[in-house]
Write a structure and sequence with these properties.
Elements (H helix, E strand, L loop, with lengths): L1 H34 L10 H9 L10 H27 L7 H10 L14 H10 L23
Helix pairs in contact: 1-3, 2-3, 3-4
């Protein structure tokens, strides 16, 4: 009983700390965007972004600043997803970011719901951990082989 209460208390503490970290993260992103003067250097390749944009048949012309904006948006997306995944890894007392951390970040964050079918959760591991901790889990007993990746074919 006390282990369960300690676990719940610790999760609450992690959640409030995580919220504070996210607020600081977004404030820093905002400051960084406001202070940006060099639009020539990017962490993601603009040519690749432009190629992906042109994959849509309806796109005929792309303004020069569009790939720059997309590059920054992609960076911010990756940073937030990584930040949330890292919080999950720390919550599980690990120092290595794993696929399951990213999947958990996606599952916990409503804005990432569009990724739920693309990045599968390893529910078999979650179920094993829940059973080991004596907590109920809806996927308990579900074999890992039955949970595959969802692939969206190109059209």
């Amino acid at each position: 009983m006390f282990d369960y209460i300690n676990c719940v208390t610790e999760r609450f503490r992690f959640r409030s700390t995580r919220q504070q970290q996210l607020q600081v993260f977004w404030a820093e992103q905002y400051r960084e965007i406001e202070a940006t003067t060099d639009f020539k250097n990017h962490n993601l390749p603009l040519a690749r972004i432009k190629k992906i944009m042109k994959a849509d048949e309806d796109v005929r012309m792309i303004a020069a600043e569009a790939p720059v904006v997309f590059a920054r948006a992609c960076e911010m997306f990756i940073l937030e997803l990584t930040h949330r995944g890292w919080a999950h890894a720390e919550e599980n007392k690990r120092r290595t970011l794993q696929k399951s951390d990213i999947a958990a970040a996606i599952a916990r964050t409503e804005v990432f719901d569009f990724l739920v079918d693309i990045v599968p959760r390893d529910e078999a591991k979650d179920a094993e951990a829940a059973v080991a901790a004596g907590m109920p889990h809806p996927a308990a007993g579900m074999p890992a082989a039955d949970m595959g990746y969802y692939y969206v074919p190109q059209q």
